[in-house]
Amino acid sequence: MMKLEAIIQPSRFESVKDALREIGIEGMTVTEVRGHGRQKGHTEVYRGREYTVDLLPKMKLEMVLPDALVSRVVDTILKTAKTGKIGDGKIFLSRVEEAIRIRNEERGENAL
Amino acid sequence: MKCMGQTCCFHLVLVLGGFLFAAVPLSSQQTPAPMLPSSTLPATLAMPEASKGVNEKLAQLDQRVTAAQSSADNAWMLVSAALVLMMTGPGLALFYGGLVRRKNTLAIMMQSFALMALITVMWALVGYSLCFGGSGPVIGGFEHAFLRGVGAEPNPDYAGTIPQMTFMVYQLMFAIITPALITGATAERMKFSGTVLFLALWFLVVYAPLAHMVWGKGGLLNAALGGKFPTLDFAGGTVVHISSGVSALVCAIYLGKRTGYPKQPMPPHSLVLSFIGACLLWVGWFGFNAGSALASNALATSAFVATHFAAAAAALSWSAAEWIKNGRASALGAISGAVAGLVAVTPAAGFVAPMPALVIGFVAGACCYWMVTKVKAIFGYDDALDAFGVHGAGGTIGALLTGVFAQQAINPIFGAGKAVGGLDGHLGQIGNQLVGVLIAWGFALAGTMVLLKIVDLLTGVRVPEEHEIQGLDVTQHGEEAYNLEA
């Protein structure tokens, strides 16, 4: 099992979600986050006071996938989340030891 | 302000109406007269009877005309009173509420609302009497304490065509918003207990004397009722805006800066709220300024137009200044400019023509922009929501420019044919305005300093740092503005 975390542009989120549903992904956890990589922020001015806003809003998707699905999901996200500009985000993959469904205590890939 | 030369017009109408009315029945009585034998009814008997009937009708007519005018004026004044209350809640509460950080939203709104309740009760007990009772030079008396003698009868000293009760409740709304303006400077760090105590005392010690001096009978600065330095203040440039704005500056300096100011960003949490608030203020200001004619007459129209024009001009000049400086015109800038223009035209509204009103607005928008962006930064005081920068500065500019632009053609307050302001050739009025401004500044400075010391000893004025960081909503009121997960 692999855990996939993708940080993407909020404007691409709906397309990514729809594309993932089409390839049969049934579950995900989504968080509105703020952060920045190489993308620069912008300045705002309120009554003469300037503020630099460098933490920009992003969406973070998290899902744990059976090994067989990982590459398809990664491809789908790459295809749908890309705008080609700085600030498109990143995907992180990491190995997951165990998954347990709380309702019936199923374990492993069955719990996904 | 508020005692105008429309009474002579009114009398003229009455007299003319009387003649017309008298002419009709007289001729109808005279027509059958020749049919009667002249000997049966001696002329000496007939005349008194006829004139008695005429006099009765005249008196009736007089009564009806008075009643009709009173109804019209009263309708407008009640609406105006409601409009002025709308300026505090929701107007000012939303304007200020949007400008603070999310954690202090309810606290700043609650301060405005608390004043709506507190000042109302104080006004009923002694406030109205201290402002408009008696005829001393500095403060009123207790003759109207507990609203004694305030009823359906007009008070001819102030507003001869509306019930004194209407005048009383209209003036109350001014007394509510004035201390509420100060909370813009103390925002995000002043204790609720200290705020309430300070503003209650401030109303008695600073507002009441100033209101009496400028508007009360016999007041030192009253232009219409025998003041020594007749200061033109149609709707409260000195009484409302200089007093609150200058006191706000003292408060900002006494309280000290907010924790983290100016390094930590403190952007407004919702300019949408502020935007709605500012638009409500603009509309409410028609009650404030045009209502200050105290009648539904041409002077009210003139004040209405001047108010609107100045607000528009100031919104433009603030935006233009910002556009030149930052390359963009912001929504916050535009609404702040409008408020600055409304403040500056407040003392002038019932004295100036539309073109001078535009000038007042243009000047006020640009000057207040400079006060808020430059002067504040140079001196380093933390006037959190710019109560001084907008109301103190705008009020002062407006009060002085009123002396320049006031015209007897708009409002012959010093008597028919007598020059009013500088444009009329009465340059001395600018000096009178300066005296009024200085007295208002002095009163606000001294009164606020003394009261802050007293309140600091009694309840304390500033919240502890950890409460400030946590936010006043939770620490002062035990609630939060936004419980979005709830």
In a few lines, what is going on in this structure?
The complex is a heterodimer of chains A (112) and B (486). Chain A has 112 residues and is an alpha+beta fold.
Descriptive notes:
- The complex is a heterodimer of chains A (112) and B (486).
- Chain A is of the alpha+beta class.
- Chain A has one domain: 2-Layer Sandwich (Alpha-Beta Plaits), CATH 3.30.70.
- Chain A is built from 2 helices and 6 strands; from the N terminus they run E-H-E-E-E-E-H-E.
- In chain A, the strands form 2 sheets. A 4-stranded antiparallel β-sheet of chain A has the order 2-5-1-6, covered by helices on one side. A two-stranded antiparallel ribbon of chain A has the order 3-4.
- In chain A, strand 3 and strand 4 form a beta hairpin.
- In chain A, helix 1 packs antiparallel against helix 2.
- Chain A starts with a strand and ends in a 17-residue tail after the last strand.
- In chain A, 12% of the residues are buried.
- Chain B is an all-alpha fold and 486 residues long.
- Chain B has 2 domains: 54 residues, no CATH class; 402 residues, Ammonium transporter fold.
- Chain B contains 14 helices and no strands.
- In chain B, helix 4 packs parallel to helix 6, helix 7 packs antiparallel against helix 8 and helix 8 runs antiparallel to helix 9.
- Chain B is globular and about 90 Å long.
- The two termini of chain B are 51 Å apart.
- The interface between A and B is medium-sized, with 7 and 18 residues.
